[in-house]
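Readers of this paper often ask what the protein records in our data store actually look like. Such a record has a labelled line for the sequence and another for the backbone structure tokens. Nothing more is needed to write down the fold, since each code stands for a local backbone conformation. The remainder of this section carries one protein's record, kept here as part of the documentation.
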Amino acid sequence: MLRPRRTRSLALGAALVVASWGTVAVPASADPGNGKAGQHTQSAGVEPALAHGMRLDQLPDYLRVRLRTVTEVEAAAAVVARQRWLATSTTEAILPLTHGGNASIVEAMREVDAAWRVRTLSDALREASDLLGRSYLRTAAAVWDLRPLLTGEVWCRAVVLGATAASAGLSPAELARLVGFEDVQTVIAAALKLEPFDPSQGVRWAVEAAAEVEHLVERVQAARTTADIPAHSAPLIEEWGQLHRSTERRLFRA
């Protein structure tokens, strides 16, 4: 018998899988505003990394760097978004903005979104997060009440994940762990398409990354305000992401 918390984690995980893979793929060169874009269009930067000289056997190191930098920043922002969503939604009714409801929730989410953006220097990485945030929100809002985010604004993935986790009843640790492992599986799945290898090796890399994911969870699960979001950066990942935007022959958007 599944425990309630485990069931909620599986429910959110299933929703994210639908958001990530259940959308229609569009060419990397297509206008992102005219089509759907899910995680299957993203490589978490591994395509440009491999294109610029990273070897496949260095993938575990690449995962480690991401989990200590860009992924930790995103996980912390998601944890803060969850906290702010819960703190504001318990003090006001769910009403349209025109009637005064949810204004503080929206402002709180805008603050978290801005905090994540100022810590993410690469506009290529920001754009990738925005595309995923839109896809996740479309799917998650069909399951949980996320009306405060349905303002037509662009939200980064961390904000959408935080709000969804709050609505789904996930703890900060569960949310951070989800963000970490989602990044791990995205990198490995993309690498498998780019430079095919024995899938069992990918399973091994994912298992080996578990300890690093848990370290990430320990570092961010107590985050409560935007001041708690770290400002780590990964210059090479960001530079490769920028260069990837102008690459004509590519399999993934980013």
About this structure: The chain has one domain: 45-245.
